Amino acid sequence: MRKNIVVRYLVATLGLILVAFGVAVSLKSNLGTAPPSCPPAVLNLRWGAISVGTFTWMMHLVLIGAQMAMRRKLWDVNYLLQLLAAFVFGYLCDAGIWILRNVTLETYAGQMAFCLLAVLVTAIGIRLEVLGNTWMLAGDKFVVVFSEVTGIKFSNAKVIVDVCFVVISALFAWFAFHSFFGNGEHVVIREGTVILALLTGLCMKLTDPLVDKVFKPLIHE
Predict the structure, then answer these.
(1) Which residues have C-beta within 8 Å of that of residue 62, sequence separation ≥ 6?
(2) Less Cβ around it within 10 Å: N or C end of the chain?
(3) Per-chain mean pLDDT for the chain
(4) 45-48 long-range CB contacts below 8 Å, 24 or more apart?
(5) Where are the domains of the chain?
(6) What stretches of the chain show up as alpha helix (H) in DSSP?
(7) In this structure, how many other beta carbons lie within 10 angstroms of the beta carbon of residue 172?
(8) How confident is the model at residue 39 (pLDDT cuts 50, 70, 90)?
């Protein structure tokens, strides 16, 4: 049993690594990042001394607080797990950004290739998180709680939350830079945001069977 738990955490952690790297890849594409990463990315454009990863875990703290308010429950072990996952995920995002710091994309085709790579990496990472069933990011858990409290179907709740992330980010970008998309040089919201929001789920239909074939035996052995 103990070995199984260790394997689950390892699988879920690999999922976090891939999702975080997907964030870094999408930011490097400069075509827009996934909706949950829009707020940290646009805040980083305004206050560059604070990293995207730091803004990410700070946002997750807000989402954990929102869960407490919605559930009217101040303590739950899941809050602690989400808190740990937030710190790990945030700094993994920074690590991915650092790894790609010297990559230059000079053509739209190259940018789109990175955007699609972000879709693939994110899809695989999300499935690994689900299989591991240990870490859970506050952004994902927030949607679950929002769905439970409001009675809105999970898929619809996910769309509502994602739209809110994008709208809030766009409004902040407008007030900070007079542009809804970024600061003029770096893009946070554009076609890549839509692509990541729509294609990641579709991509999972193709990648999930392959991921399950490799990792399910490890978890259930």
Answers:
(1) none
(2) N
(3) 89
(4) 45/173, 45/176, 45/177, 45/182, 45/183, 45/186, 45/188, 46/172, 46/176, 46/177, 46/183
(5) 2-220
(6) 2-29, 38-46, 52-71, 77-99, 108-132, 138-150, 154-177, 191-220
(7) 18
(8) very high
d(CA 158, CA 34) in angstroms, rounded, equals 13
Residue with tokens 């542009």: 179
**CA–CA gap between residue 170 and residue 181 (Å, rounded):** 6
What is the pLDDT at residue 41? 95
- What's the pLDDT band for 78 if we cut at 50, 70, 90? confident
CB 170 within 8 A of CB 189: yes
Q: Classify residue 4 by its DSSP letter.
A: H
Does the reported pTM lie above 0.90? no
What is the chain's length? Answer: 221
